[in-house]
Amino acid sequence: MRVLRTLILCAVVVALPHELRAQVGFLEGLFRNLDNAGGFWVYAGFLPHSSTLTAGSPGGKPKQAGMQGPGFAFTFHMGSAGVDTIVTAVTPAKCQVVSAPADPTCRNPRADTIPTWLFHLALAYSQITGFQSQNPRLDFKGSIRELPRIAWFAQFHPRWLVSPYAGLHMGLLQMQSGAVYDSTGAYYPFAGTTYEVGAVLGFAVNFRAGDESFVMFVEPGYTLRKFASLDWGGGQKTIPAFLPRSLQFTGWEVAVGLEIGVPHPSPGDKGGGRGP
Prior knowledge:
single chain; mainly beta; two-stranded antiparallel sheet; 4 helices; 14 strands
């Protein structure tokens, strides 16, 4: 399993787009605090409703939900607060062995302390597509890409089987391979860059399989995204009036994912917890 984990992490780094590889050095600096790494899938919709875009097919009935895409995240330990005490019981089988009388835990339960709150920083990279113009004359192509999203999470009782958490995030958003085709076949490439900001409220399911720890999470959230202006090529180029000057992707989203824990050699293991 540890060989598999190493191969997965290496594959993720190799698969990074060129502009993201420059950030690998930053990730290496945080690596000693890395708790989890994994992937997720995002499903999103417009809210408030968009009068320009749809998540449906060209010329079809406008849909306000249906944008989606994959992503992956790295979650780093930032701190903890509060203390809970757990009394660990000794199993009868352990106390029945010959060496049991020498084991003090067979006479006295062991009290372990764990944090009530766990704080994380997460770096998430995702790409969402599935949007179209509501104008039947236009066929939109492209995707929006986070490069990256930076999130801060506070997780309550991280050792519970099901643990709730809340977070805030912001990030750099880029329109990737944007293009519009009109009814005559004319082609209009466009690009755009903006920032996003939002909040999430989710829950994590913490479990183990053999020696490995995993976190499965469901994360509803709301994100403000607006490209205030679009780059249609610059210069003295005349842009037809039917092409949009700005695009808004503000709305709700739900991310569902699975992360694998990264073990820490120190006695104060920081594993558990999550975040995109």
